[in-house]
Amino acid sequence: MGTLPRQSGFASNGSPVLFAGFISNLSRKNKTDRITGLFNKMVYSEEAQRLLSHRADTPLTIMQLGLDDFKHINDFYDRSFGDEILRISAQRIMSLLPENAEVYRLDGDEFGILISGAQPQELLGIYTKLQTAFDQQMIYEGRRYYCTLSCGCATYPQDAENFLELVKAAGYALEQAKLNGKNRIEFFTRQILARKIRSLGIIEKMRESIVQNYAGFFLMYQPQVSVTTGQWTGLEALARWNKEPYGLVPPNEFIPLLEESGMISQVGRWIFFQACQKCADWSALAPTLTMSINLSYMQLMEPGFIDYMQQTLAKTQADPRRIIVEMTESVIASRAHSLEHLFQRIHDLGLRIAMDDFGTGYSSLEMLKKMPADIVKIDRAFVHGVNASNFDESFIQFIVAICHKVNIEVCAEGVETEAEFQILYPMNVDMIQGYYFGKPMEEEAIERHLRTMRQKASAQESSVTE
Ligand code: C2E
Ligand code: CA
Ligand code: CA
Predict the structure, then answer these.
(1) Which CATH code, of 3.30.540.10, 3.50.50.60, 3.30.70.1150, 3.30.70.270, is assigned to 26-188?
(2) Shortest CA distance to 273 belongs to which of 223, 235, 303, 314?
(3) Ligand 1 neighbours by CB, cut-off 6 Å
(4) Which pTM was predicted?
């Protein structure tokens, strides 16, 4: 060995003198999650099945935890920061659990807790501790974040007969917790199961509708009225779906299901096409009438959607200056940086952009500064009862003042009463949309109104020229 040049790494007989590498315990590696260090889903399943078979007479609860809006953290910062937050969250959860509970990393932003023989009160106590720990702004590496925790609970044997069913039940309960506003716990119930079955059924039927050339889908149109003239300035296209055995299902229910199932991409294109078509059809009756079309975030992110918009405008001959796309403020806020380019392309097509449900998101004013919206739609929540709320009145006044300074038009949504209108009237809001001036109407009713208006206008014109 003495004559061997040290750097060569090989003995004179050609065999290596040194091996470099990692010694890893394969079985441990396959059991723990790389990011959080927690046991993974596989161990979770094995352990649950072991508990179920060995202690079948003891109730076993799964508490399925989900970080709320975790994707915002990934979007605002980056994935590696997101990974760090997952790691910190895992530690925090672990440190707050009692002896008889164990936490595992599941998919994405979810964790699973297994706990044997616990009463609902105890489960609630565990969740409350976790909830309190997560419900506050945190700082990591100088970056602020806020990420609450939702929980779905299901217990064997009352909610499920085996592990797979138990996992499903806890998952449904977690989904319900998120639907009910997040940052809360839900215990699995028969109603939750019934809702899930309904959602799955609706998704299937909507799939059928799409295959049948969108049978069951249609649009209603709600007028937007100029505050100064009282005339219709535009319409908002609102999607409807009506199919047996469900009947008319509200968009607040079916749009999220279209998003969840990815079908929003097809249906959204269909909606966009129909609305542009109508805008073009009605332009002879009302040449300046605008058409507002709602877009979900998923549509916007879909490759080729902007091209589709362009093709649709060409095909339907709709005037781009009459088309307004509405996006909710929360969508805009969460994806601000990736949307800038898309907004530019939308503007390049000649369309206008409205920020929908303004005031309900958490960074409305910041968004107003960053995003080149042409119209702001003040959410119903501020308009409803504005005649009795000093705060809402001042809020609207303030938004109108800011928007007008930078040439953004303001539409107040959800005006239902004369009293609300009387408060809004002197505030210089540009447009009003609400039941007070008109509910969403079917195509035929809109057309009738436009014809009547047209006839009145021509009668006036001819009386002036006579
Ligand atoms: P949105 O975009 O905020 O639409 C306005 C909703 O407020 C409509 O409900 C409308 O009927 C309702 N509304 C208007 N005026 C009043 C009022 O004075 N009082 C009350 N209480 N409500 C009023 P709708 O049609 O049920 O739609 C609900 C939501 O569904 C929409 O909220 C929008 O977020 C979504 N949506 C509807 N159509 C589409 C669509 O084509 N695409 C997408 N992505 N979402 C849609
Ligand atoms: Ca809207
Ligand atoms: Ca709205």
Answers:
(1) 3.30.70.270
(2) 314
(3) 222, 238-239, 250-252, 255, 271, 294-296, 356-357, 380, 414-416, 433-435, 440
(4) 0.84
